[in-house]
């Protein structure tokens, strides 16, 4: 399960994501739709821990994300 509160991300030049709360459960299938440039790929890259973003809370399986790149890589491998 992934729980995120107050997710914020912006690219230089203006595009920004601002998501107050997002919860995704394991074993479920989700559909992400929207027009070109609405942030679908950006959100997926953030959820895959490939793109750093600002957030108040990001919990993966009930625990906070680790600080080390090595531990983040281990979590990325579990997500696939």
Key terms:
80 residues; alpha+beta; four-stranded antiparallel beta sheet; globular
Short characterization:
The protein has 80 residues and is an alpha+beta fold. Helix content is 24%, strand content 30%. The protein has a four-stranded antiparallel β-sheet with strand order 2-1-3-4, with helices on one face.
Characterization of this structure:
The radius of gyration is 13 Å and the shape is globular. The model has no long low-confidence stretch (mean pLDDT 89). Strand 3 and strand 4 form a beta hairpin. Helices cover 24% and strands 30% of the residues. It has one domain. The chain has a 4-stranded antiparallel sheet, covered by helices on one side. The longest helix has 11 residues, at 69-79. By secondary structure, it is an alpha+beta fold. The protein is built from 2 helices and 4 strands, in the order E-E-H-E-E-H.
Strand order of the largest sheet: 2-1-3-4
Count, helices: 2
One letter per element, helices H and strands E, the order comes to: EEHEEH
Low-confidence stretches are none
The termini sit apart by: 13 Å
Number of domains: 1
> Which structural class matches the secondary elements?
alpha+beta
Strand and helix layout:
Elements: E1 2-10, E2 16-24, H1 40-47, E3 57-60, E4 63-64, H2 69-79
Antiparallel strand pairs: 1-2, 1-3, 3-4
